[in-house]
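Bug report

Summary: structure tokens for VWFA domain-containing protein differ between web form and batch submission.
Environment: batch mode, default settings.
Steps: 1) Submit the sequence below via batch. 2) Compare with the web form result.

Sequence submitted:
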Amino acid sequence: MKNTLLKISMSLLLIFFFSCKEETKTESKETSTRSSVSENYNISILVDLSDRISLKKNPNPTMEIYQRDLGYIKSVSEAFTDHLKSKKLRQIDDKMQLFFNPEPENPEINSISKELRITVNKDNASKKFLNSINDTYSSKTSKIYESAIKDDKYIGSDIWNFFDSKVQDQCIDKDFRNILIILTDGYMFYEGTQIKDGNLSSYLTPQLIKQNGLNTNNWQKRFNEENFGFIKVDTDLSNLEVLVLGINPSKNNPFEEKVIKAYWTKWLSEMKIKHFEIKNADLPSNMDKIIKDFISEKE
């Protein structure tokens, strides 16, 4: 009788042991799959080429806006290449690209931007190619800004439309960690996309903030109770991370910065974007760590 009970106990223990082992294997496999997916970066940079970069309209004695942008792009590029160099060759499958919306009328700018759509995989990830990415991004983005400033034809910034009709197709890929870096002063305006729905709008300007009465101490109460903000884009972007850089509020309203960030925070949250940050314009040396930390952060 004792022997029978002992055999049964041993059998149950063995079943329990192998069951636990199999479960651990499955969990380990799932963790490994999730990790490899998040290790494939798909980084997009959306540049606002509106008159915010104009040397005539918005001169900045400390450092011009376009020079700050170039510094931010340099940090993004370095974070991307550092990530590539940290991977084994067979694991490399990453992308980085640069967008505008609307596209500038200057064909040279559009041509250069196409050269900045970089795909790196095990077949082309030579040491020479990886080492060339930062220089390519630095030199070619400099040409884009110089050309835009020289043209002096600023047609505005249609970031709302980019989210409404393009971001899903152009910035999000399955099995990648999708990161969108937006370089903007926080305002949005494009002549061809001016939509209003009650107190919601597809654009934001200093004039609109003043017109909406969001330039007084009780702006937040008014913002919440009267439903101000950007018109909601009916898209689930939960697999996108967003870093907004360069918020540069008008000095005429002490609450302008908070209002701009409230518009953006509400809008990004409505699109189910869980990981996002909104940062003010600052010197590139001060922003370098913030940018690289955001990009290197694991989900």
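Above is the batch result. After comparison, the two runs are identical; trailing whitespace caused the diff. Confidence is low (pLDDT under 50) at residues 12-37. The chain has ten helices and nine strands.
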